[in-house]
Amino acid sequence: MFDYDLEHIFSYTVTIAEPEVVGPVPGGVRANLYATSGEVTGPKLAGKVRPVGGDWLTLRTDGVSVLDVRNTLEVGEGALVDVALTGVGDLGADGYERFMRGELPQTVALRVSARFLSAHPEFVWLNRLQCLAIGEFDSESSRAGWDVYAVR
Description:
Blueprint: E1 6-16, E2 20-25, E3 28-41, E4 47-49, E5 54-60, E6 64-75, E7 79-90, H1 95-100, E8 107-117, E9 131-138, E10 143-151
Antiparallel strand pairs: 1-3, 1-10, 2-3, 3-4, 3-5, 4-6, 5-6, 6-7, 7-8, 8-9, 9-10
InterPro entries: UPF0311
């Protein structure tokens, strides 16, 4: 077994606009969830989530949502950090059918891999990281939250 550590580098929350449901596509249903605002807090980064980006997800017929999240963080004195998250959320075995009826669970657990890009000299260290993020989407508040950990 290989040695590794997980280091919490920051957490962030995103408020999401009303979903844009594309509709049934091969393998599931497509929905686009656009970010409107958010906050970044933590030991290594602090700032805000810019009102761009979102999650282009496909909810498969087995109730698993395949996440493709892109956000832009503004941290420090205005430095930009590009965020790319890929992974899954589990709405349950009947999640697809419930979604198609307009029903969402109150919360959905989210598990993703995370990568970052920044051109700002203070934050280029992020470019070298492979991270994972543990999160949750709350359908009542239309907010997603993430705890981001660097794999060391």
